[in-house]
Design a protein that fits this description.
It is built from 14 helices and 35 strands. 24% of the residues lie in helices and 26% in strands. Keywords: Glycosidase, Hydrolase, Signal.
Length: 693
């Protein structure tokens, strides 16, 4: 890995030497580049750089152009070796001066940018570079924002190359996305995530010009032995969750019994605001009338007989109950669309289903002005059809209508085809879905060998694909599901699945598949991704921490309750310590804790995402035990008293419905913030964390 990175930096050094002649490849690629023919004609970023916002445009939009500019300043500062960049200014014109480099952000409503289908988009931008200035111009603030992502990526690549100068070639970049919707979905209904982690995911995805984060916020584990069968009441205890927390005294408060696994309005709105300030819209999903066990556990009288995860739409109370849920939470959401799920319902009840979708479409629009989306589903009705105002999110053949037929019939469609775009948390079923988007399939697996793009729905049948210019193809959303819950996957393991997947998806969802001459090749992507992943600003999902010669910290003695400056350390790392528990509490308390994990004394048990993972080792009383924890993104193990033969792995037992049992390795971040606690009695010494496993 270190050799590969050295080669990469060397390649970037060569690229930087000729940066005056070309832009470096980035993710996603830009649409059009026209550069000056003058040799060495460049704009140089320096400590004196000024970010100036056109005062006539500064307040436009929500977030405003000025809001975006402030985030841009912070990001540019974080990816370069420059000293602190000056605060953002406003001015009525570009006041670039010699030896005083200026980045000027402005809006020109007359500028026109188009998607591949010819529809206008506010997300395009022009980036015009001279010796003294870079001017970013768009028709709306969001377009300027995406232009700043191009600048930040180019600066990050130059800074990583080892060059002492960060320069940009003189000329013009014109860029716009190929599709309107470029999103990712996370199943947060079956795996609990705090908003701080989800916010970091938003910020990371934004770096690759992804503009939507679809939150699948209600669902249940699917276990047929618990759900179905006459007289079966196992459904009452099957895990089901709803993540939005009703206000105090709300009539629907019984919907959320797990208050500690739900988001308050303030938490959600804070996340929503930060995502918006990075160009990402949160699209919430409350899934009904299928996947509704959480509602039926609250109100059993609403369930379909023999199917506790289905609502019975013929019960008079059912639809008013669903409307009351939306009434509570619609005011939380700033998105122009929401998802009502509406997939995998009983095909025999097609008319009931279609009537429900259309009624909810009208109701939500009347209450909030918002449109709705539904997952593609089988609706074999000969009398009714879903309203054309509803967007269909395709995910499978043949469970839903064929997407090309839907578009031909006038429906707006989003591509989430599982053959290309589905991931799942760790599971014992090896062939369920991959842990990362299939790179071979994404780059070259579609008919014709040109790789995947949002207009590609089938890897085998070209007749199921459409033209990039189809006016009813809105774009694409990749998805990461947690069908089997969160016992086998920590939140950082979810990020490891998404990190590279989001970047390659960002390239394809913005630029398509060999549609533009500037589109990345797989080799170009592989070369720049590690640098951009490491540089992505505004978050620290890699849990990178300062170190000296690879040593994060080294304490001879740790005091119970002592805190450090390090919240968490991402793998690979080695954490070493010696411990002697006292006889008063030989199996109680914490050894270490951090923002991502804790290590308990009892059985040397790791805790992450609310789950416990015991090593099964008991620390002896009255004697010191040396423990060395080695972690990578694939596993975590301990070596006791320097005896390599005692290598023990932290694992979890995975299963499908109590069968097909399998053991999976766990990856944990180092719990580096606090020593001792929660009743621990004893001593800890020789505590160190070193990068590398």
């Amino acid at each position: 890995m270190h050799i590969a990175f050295t080669l990469l930096v060397g390649a970037l050094c060569l690229a930087t030497d000729v940066l005056g002649a070309s832009l470096q490849p980035q993710i996603p690629s830009v649409a059009s580049v026209s550069l000056s023919s003058a040799s060495g004609d460049v704009f140089q970023l320096s400590e004196l750089v000024r970010i100036v916002v056109d005062s006539k445009s500064a307040a436009k939009g929500s977030p405003s152009l000025l809001d975006f500019a402030k985030v841009f300043r912070n990001d540019l500062n974080s990816v370069t070796f420059l000293k602190t960049i000056l605060p953002v200014e406003t001015s009525s014109h570009n006041i670039a001066l010699p030896n005083l480099p200026t980045i000027f952000l402005t809006i020109d409503p007359k500028k026109q940018f188009k998607l591949f289908n010819g529809k206008p988009t506010d997300e395009g931008y022009e980036l015009t570079t001279s010796r003294n200035s870079i001017v970013v111009t768009a028709s709306a603030p969001i377009g300027v924002w995406w232009g700043t992502r191009t600048i930040v990526q180019q600066a990050a690549l130059a800074a990583a190359s080892g060059s002492k100068k960060i320069t940009f070639p003189v000329g013009k970049v014109t860029d716009a996305p190929g599709w309107e919707v470029r999103g990712f979905m996370l199943d947060v209904g079956r795996h609990w995530f705090e908003t701080d982690f989800l916010t970091e995911l938003c910020v990371y995805a934004s770096f690759f010009k992804i503009n939507e984060f679809h939150l699948h916020a209600s669902d249940n584990l699917w276990n047929p032995d618990f759900l179905y069968g006459e007289g079966n009441e196992g459904w009452k205890n099957l895990y089901a969750a709803f993540r939005f927390q009703p206000g105090h005294g709300s009539p629907i408060s019984g919907l959320v019994p797990r208050k500690n696994e739900s988001w308050t309005q303030n938490d959600f709105r804070s996340m929503q605001t930060t995502c918006a300030q990075h160009g990402v819209t949160l699209v919430p999903e409350i899934d009904t009338p299928g996947h509704s066990l959480v509602i039926n556990q609250w109100k059993p009288q609403l369930m379909e007989r023999g199917a506790p995860d289905h609502l019975n739409l013929s019960v008079p109370e059912t639809i008013p109950t669903i409307k009351s849920i939306w009434d509570e939470f619609l005011p939380w959401f700033t998105s122009s669309e929401v998802s009502i799920g509406a997939d995998e319902y009983d095909a025999k009840l097609a008319d009931d289903y279609i009537g429900f979708v259309n009624e909810m479409s009208s109701y939500i629009h009347q209450k909030s002005g918002k449109s709705i989306r539904v997952w593609g589903t089988n609706e074999p009705s000969t009398t009714l059809s879903i309203s054309k105002n509803v967007t269909i999110q395709h995910w499978d053949f043949p469970a839903d209508d064929i997407p090309t037929r839907l578009m031909d019939a006038g429906y707006q469609v989003i591509n989430s085809e599982q053959a290309f775009l589905y991931l799942d948390g760790k599971t014992s079923l090896d062939n369920q879905f991959p842990q990362e988007l299939n790179q071979d399939l994404i780059w070259s697996g579609a008919p014709g060998g040109k790789g995947w793009a949002p207009n590609i729905f089938s890897p085998t049948d070209p007749s199921n694909n459409t033209n990039i210019r189809n006016p009813n193809l809105r774009g694409s959303i990749m998805a990461l599901w947690n069908d089997w819950g969160n016992n086998a996957t920590t939140r950082l393991e979810i990020y490891y699945q998404l990190s590279r997947s989001l970047a390659v998806f960002g390239e394809k969802a913005w630029s398509g598949s060999e549609v533009r001459d500037t589109a990345l090749t797989r080799a170009q992507f592989d070369a720049v991704y590690p640098v951009l992943n490491a540089a992505a600003p505004g978050q620290n999902l890699n849990r990178v921490v300062p170190s000296r010669n690879g040593v994060v910290y080294n304490f001879n003695l740790g005091f119970n309750g002592q805190t450090t400056h390090v919240d968490s350390v991402g793998p690979p790392y080695t954490m070493t310590f010696s411990v002697i528990p006292s006889s008063r509490s030989p199996s109680q308390g914490l050894l270490f804790s951090g923002i991502d994990s804790k290590l308990h004394v009892a059985n040397l048990t790791f805790e992450a995402t609310g789950k416990l993972y015991p090593l099964g080792y008991t620390l002896p009383l009255g004697k010191w035990t040396k423990v060395a924890i080695h972690a990578t993104r694939e596993y975590t193990y301990a070596v006791i008293n320097d005896d390599a033969s005692t290598k023990r792995f932290w694992t979890t037992t995975m299963d499908l419905w109590g069968s097909e049992m399998a053991v999976g390795n766990m990856s944990f971040a180092a719990p580096s913030k606090t020593f001792g606690g929660d009743g621990f009695s004893g001593s800890i010494k020789d505590i160190s964390i070193v990068l590398g496993a």
